[in-house]
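User: Quick sanity check before I run a bigger batch. Here is a single chain. Can you write out its predicted 3D structure?
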Amino acid sequence: MGGLSIWHWLIVGIVVMLLFGKGRFSDLMGDVAKGIKSFKKGMAEEDEPVRERRVEALDKPRPAATVEKEPVEEQRPL
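Assistant: Done. Predicted structure follows.
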């Protein structure tokens, strides 16, 4: 109980073949293989060293304006 026997897998396989047909199933597997190849190619390209690009500022930053505050008189409790 709880496990699938060989007969269950055969029935599932027959249903899948009926739904997808011979041509669709082979096309589907071909598309999966192409996806795996492109994934591997993308991973291989990622391993190549990345050239660092230097970004320079167009304008030099100006110092921020300073705000002068008036002195505050200290108030003492009576």
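The chain has one helix and no strands.

User: Great, the batch can go ahead then.
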